[in-house]
Write a structure and sequence with these properties.
Elements (H helix, E strand, L loop, with lengths): L2 H24 L15 E4 L2 E4 H4 E7 L2 E6 L5 H10 L7 E2 L4 E4 L5 H38 L5 H34 L2
Antiparallel strand pairs: 1-2, 3-4, 4-6, 5-6
Length: 186
């Protein structure tokens, strides 16, 4: 692997870590309804745990309501059961055609709890990115040892990887600030 390939690999891996972290943050509840809250809830559909997004159309007709319309009406009760088991803390309303989730406003304690969860997810993302830096730096040292990189190239690669890490840590902080603001708004 060359200098450029190593740097590209580090960037790709950090991008994946950032994307994964973004997915986890989208699933945290805010005062507004979002289809991301329920998309990945698993429904035991004919013995197979299937994500809700594959079984139904999920829409947000109002700021505090999620409507789930199953493609197969016979799966309505299964969807309702899966939503009851989930950790959303919202009771689904099944009218025979669709399932409605009405989002109650968050209390101050709930807001703080969700903000802390967002902070925790972001810190895990930062740790993951630091682990990527460590792995790529080890790889760079291996390239230097096998004479594929010079001492100067190795030092420059370490510096480039460090600046890449700082860039992605900045993106993590932006995501965290944005999510915390969403959670805290009334």
């Amino acid at each position: 692997m060359t200098y450029q390939e190593t740097l590209k690999d580090a960037k790709t891996r950090m991008e994946k870590a950032l994307s994964h972290m973004g997915d986890l943050l989208r699933a945290i509840r805010t005062s507004r309804a979002s289809s991301a809250l329920v998309e990945n809830i698993r429904v035991d559909y004919y013995g197979t745990p299937t994500p809700l997004a594959q079984l139904s159309q999920i829409s947000v007709p109002e700021p505090r309501q999620i409507v789930i319309k199953p493609f197969d009406p016979s799966g309505l009760d299964l969807i309702t059961k899966a939503l009851m088991k989930s950790d959303l803390g919202i009771s689904p309303e099944n009218d025979g055609k669709v399932v409605r989730l009405n989002m109650p406003p968050l209390s101050g304690d709930q807001r703080k709890k969700y903000a802390a969860k967002a902070r925790e997810i972001c810190e895990e993302g930062r740790v993951s990115m630091r682990n990527i830096r460590r792995d790529v730096n080890k790889h760079a040292d291996g390239l230097k040892k096998s004479s594929e990189l010079t001492e100067d190239e190795n030092r420059k690669l370490h510096d480039d990887i460090q600046s890449l890490l700082k860039e992605y840590e900045g993106k993590v902080s932006e995501l965290q600030d944005k999510k915390t603001t969403e959670i805290m708004e009334v």
